[in-house]
Each structure stands twice: as structure tokens, then as C-alpha cells.
Amino acid sequence: MAEAEPLEMAYISEVILKKRKHKEESIALTRKSQLELGQHGGKKRKVEDIKRPEQLVREFRERELDLIRMKQRTKRAKSALSTPNSKLLFVIRLHGKNDMHPKTRKILYNLRLTRIFHGVFLKASPGVLELLQKVEPYVTYGYPNAKNVSCLIYKKGYGKIDNKRVPLIDNNIIEQALGKHGILCLEDIVHEVANGGPHLREILNFLGSFSLNKPKEGLQGKRALFKDGGDTGTRENQINDLIDKMN
């Protein structure tokens, strides 16, 4: 019986073999670094970053208590809501992090107050005042004067175009977004907002939130109402003093 001919080994070029070796070494080094840093190469978690069961329970109770208090505030008589003295409100978020109920957070997000020390202009109405009453422990608000309206828009003004924040440094941006309403430049925006013009709602929808500075003084660090010696709730015309410190 004739001997079987030996099978010829497939030829693999030296370049391919070097690439394969380099890839294997790279995988080994990556795996080694992952084991040193932790699973999937993430940073080692600090002990203080790990929440204990009692901390999770406390945060859950705080969120539920926040919901109960919000419902209690909404049961106040409608007459308790202050009648707006102006068409324009400026609202600043002062508090709120892990202790907020999801419903409270949703209201703040709907008001475009997604971060602490962010402020927004809002058109004063019973509906808006009712929403502010629900999130009263986390915000303060009042009636901005023409000077602060102008300073805020010129210094920290942003517009929203395609869900992106765009600095108001070019009047072409304003004309593109609001030209159909006769608003062509930054001066037109300031005039319309300060005087509560007929296109105030369209302008406020265009303007983004204002990122303010943390004041060095002027806040008590209390969630009590401003009229009771705290920081939150309505300040009426005294909101201008706080804006001056944060702008």
C-alpha cells in the first residue's frame, strides 16, 4: 500500500504573523491593565462612593416626604397664590439633588431648571405660579427690572437652535430664529422681554437657561421661605439684589 503523501502546510506571510503576534500582545496588555484597575478597565470605586443600605433607605424616605409636602402645598387655597405684579418672572434654582421626588424633578426640568444656580425668564400666569408653588423649596423667583434683564441677556444669553445652545453673538442667528416675529437683533430681544411685548412667549421659548454664579453672600442655606428668613419662594422686587450677586 502506497504511503499517503504529507499535506502541505498553508503558507502564511511573515507580515501577517507579526500582526497576529502584535494583536495577541496588545490584548494581553489590555487585559492586564483591566485586572489592575478593576473590571472593564474602570476606576476603582472608593469606599465612600458605595451607598450603604441605610443611606438608600434615607434617600427613599426623603423623596417620598418631598412628594407628600408637594401635595400639601398644592392644597393651599388658590387665593394664597400671589397675584403677579408683572408679566415677567425670573426664577433661580437653588437646591435639589438626590432628595427630590421624580415628579418634583420633572417639574423643574419642564421649567428648564436642570441644574442648581440656573435661572430662566418665565411669563407670569396662574399656571406658572402654581408650578412654582409645587417646587417652592428648590427655587426663588421675583420680578426682574429692565437693567437686570439687559445684563443677563447681553452677558449670559444663549438661544436654542436644533436643541443646541448657541451664544447670542450674531444677529443673523436671532433673525433666522425670530425674524418672522419682527425680532432681528439682541436689542429687540431685550426690549421685548423687558416690556412684556406681544412676542414674549416666542422669545422665552427661544432663550436658553442662564448659568449663574454661586453668590459669595446673600444665601442663608435654608429651604425656608424668603419671607421667613430663608432663601426660597417669592422675593418679588428683591430678586434683583440676588441677580446682581450672581450675574
Automatic annotation (TrEMBL):
GO terms for biological process: maturation of LSU-rRNA from tricistronic rRNA transcript (SSU-rRNA, 5.8S rRNA, LSU-rRNA). Keywords: Ribonucleoprotein, Ribosomal protein. It comes from the Eukaryota. Gene3D superfamilies: Ribosomal protein L30, ferredoxin-like fold domain (3.30.1390.20). One of its GO terms (molecular function) is structural constituent of ribosome. It holds the Pfam family Ribosomal_L30. Belongs to the universal ribosomal protein uL30 family. This is 60S RIBOSOMAL PROTEIN L7.
